[in-house]
Amino acid sequence: MQMSSFYSSSTLPLILLLLLLCVRLCSGLVEHRCTFDKRTRDGAPLPMVRELPRKGQGAFQAYTASEPEWGPLRIVFFTEDLKNKSRYCTAEGDMRPDYEGNTVKCEKKHILTEEKRALLVNKLLPDSIKLHSDRLLVQPTELFVLPPSFVGACTLFLIPDGHFTEGITGADFILYVAAGPTHDVNVAWGVPCALRSGGRPAVGALNFGPQHISSRQDLSRAVAHEIAHALGFSVQLFTESKMVTKLSKIRGKSNVLVVSSEKTREVTRKHFNCDRAPGMELEDEGGAGTAQSHWERRNAKDEIMAGVAGIGYYSAMTMAAFEDLGYYRANWGMEEVMGWGRNTGCDFLEEKCVNNGTTKYPDMFCVDGSFLFQCTSDHLALGVCGLFDFGRDLHPVYRYFKYPSMGGSPSELTDYCPVIMPSGEGACTNTLKNFTGCRVGPNSRCVESDLLRFNSVTIGAICVEVSCEHKGVASIRYVGDDTWYPCPEGHRLKPGPPFTRGHIICPRYTDICTTLASAVLKPTLDNNTFQKLLTPVEGTVQRSFSKPLEMKENDARKKHFGVNAGSVAVIPSLPWLLLCSLLGALLGI
């Protein structure tokens, strides 16, 4: 019996959603889905701050002086809502504000402990802010006074009275921070509250879900994403600055919004190596909360301004968009290299990700139903190919396989292109769970392997600990051996016991070190030892964006789905394995 004839259209999405939980839940990864557009769409115009001259300087002097020099963006945050116990959860059952206009009942996970508050104030916020202050320049603001009132969510935050009277000095942007309960898919959310006379946001608000506060390194990237929205990364401001063009017939889609302003178009063409790219596409999936004010994730999955947070590279595209707004300048040289889409050429932007079950881009998209682990594109986790049979034909734009009902997960926002999705508890940084053959920890990353066998078991990708102290060449150490080994890009490393066969394939340095370079605090190898170990590394493995996969779609379907089943390839932890088995029985898998 065909699944589509057995289940109603209302039941199928629920089943698929539960199957997705088998992949996403317990992965140990930060799962952040931004809802910025929902919070700001159809909002009232933002009020203006009042800019005042410095003490001892007349107004005429202030407004006729020569144009000030550009300097690093100074972001100062205030935490009045974290100092008042009636404004955050202290115990299960408390009734507290969620800073969206509601009072909600606190669960245990929502409690803001002293340790979490200290981590937020002393680590997460400074790290997130530094990502912007290192890369954005502004004309400094001497002194500004807040408007008498705000609009929207900004009215719900506590603000010192003096900010409305005496004003704020020594800051170009101020951020009011709270820690009210958020929905599980939202690590945090940020919005702009007021503008300067030239249009640049001067005030913002940020609410951080206490349940997400931890020492995870990738967490600061999700917070920096929300701060970027407060700083002006929004389709509204892009449109006001005449940066957006609406195009049709992009990969069969119509009414696609593209940031086509000069600098953004230039760096987009350079990144993708496509001299006819019209600019950087904006997201058109994810509903009202995510569409438009994010980069198209199909094209920029691992970028900091993609709609679903991941490793979050602060790339040249985001820096260029800020610069094209006119009131920021980018600190060029500080952009981070994102491997996703790099040098893929115009075909990547103009053609389908998968064509008749074959892809030119196996480093990004997958058609392989193998149950051996592979690395997610950000190298943060072990994963498997997220390939579904939806039991109904997909829209013609999203048909990539012989079977029109097959495609990737819509939750990935990749235009139904299948990608490697993290497996249950498969995060390499998840210290609570260790997979066979893996060395997990805060500085661990996923690497691919070639016929690697752990004792007598053939395994796929593994987690290794990474050191990036020798620029350009990463060092790794694997489970069962505390020695650090140089791992130059594209080379193969033959590990010793407990591995009995196969090789580790060394990834690109930028893929594992860009967001890890400052994480290793103690030396791993002195230079002489490093050079000696570098010599015997085994021969190279050629990496290619253009080599088609050997496995075709129909083979993957037989291996992975059976004839009429609807599923996703996952290897979840036991509780989710039981759930998936139950669902599998229900679906006839």
UniProtKB/TrEMBL annotation:
Binds 1 zinc ion per subunit. The keyword Metal-binding applies. The active site is at residue 226. It catalyses: Preference for hydrophobic residues at P1 and P1' and basic residues at P2' and P3'. A model nonapeptide is cleaved at -Ala-Tyr-|-Leu-Lys-Lys-. Its cofactor is Zn(2+). Keywords: Cell adhesion, Disulfide bond, Glycoprotein, Hydrolase, Membrane, Metal-binding, Metalloprotease, Protease, Signal, Zinc, Zymogen. This is Leishmanolysin-like peptidase. It comes from Trypanosoma cruzi.
